[in-house]
Amino acid sequence: MKEDTGATSLDEGWGPLSQLPGNPMIWLLIISEIAVFGAGFAGFVISFLIDPQTFSHSQDTLNRLAGAINTQVLITSGFFAALAVKAESENRTARMRLWIAAAIALGLVFLGVKYVEYSAEIAHGHTIGTNNFYTLYYLLTGFHALHVVLGMVILAIVGWKHSLDNLETGAAFWHMVDLIWVILFPVVYLMR
Amino acid sequence: MNAKSSHPSHNLPSRRTLFTAWLVLMALTVGTMLAGHVTSTRSLGLLWTGGLLLISWAKARTILQVYLNLRAAPRGWQTGFNITLIMLLLLLLGLYAINALGLIPR
After folding, report:
1. pLDDT < 70 stretches in chain B
2. Measured between CB atoms, which of A21, A71, A190 is closest to B72?
3. CATH architecture, range A23-190
4. ipTM
5. Helix, strand, or coil (residue A132)
């Protein structure tokens, strides 16, 4: 007879979600974030439809090259996070922490570039209240940047309290931040 | 048996696969820069915007399949996420097309 230990596996009670890699909870979050940001992107394009001239002129003030560089920074950071998970699966803790530190460092670079972008816009008098474009620009990119900060904290925690499940879950959050950005960048910075 | 030992979470991609995905993503980002005319201010038009969103789909799918390791999940989940992604990008393209094709009287 199977002994009831009282312990509950992460996989129990999640139904089809338990078929996904890593902690099912992170996938609930990923699905929610895709829905929330997806609605934000649709709202952004609808606002563009209503006032295309203001949107195009405002968008031209953005540093598109900085956005592209940040895409490469996040993609590389995601690669490092994936390598950290791989190292943890081989019980190479020191190497895992090295990759985690590199991923976090690139997260800081991303935020640094964003700071430069925001500073330039604000210096030109383009604030969140200037028009609908800037309101949505600051809200969408700011909300995403908050996810970057949270992701860096999560990566630091799973690098410290490490297990394969923790690393996989923390890295999944980081990849989700990456996933959102690869759609946010073309929609907010480039579509015109 | 540990419930996690047979879990797809342990079917991690190889370093080679991760590196290839990184290379593909970097190359696609260069494609995004070209299709999005990052150094220009002129309007993209429907064709370039379509190309831009197609590249975005390829990038998002690569992140989902390799970095988020969705490739280890059943086919239904992979298709579900892919369809969601395609629907979102088609919605954005469709909205953009309304303006690009002059369907709104100004």
Report:
1. 1-10
2. A21
3. Up-down Bundle (1.20)
4. 0.90
5. helix
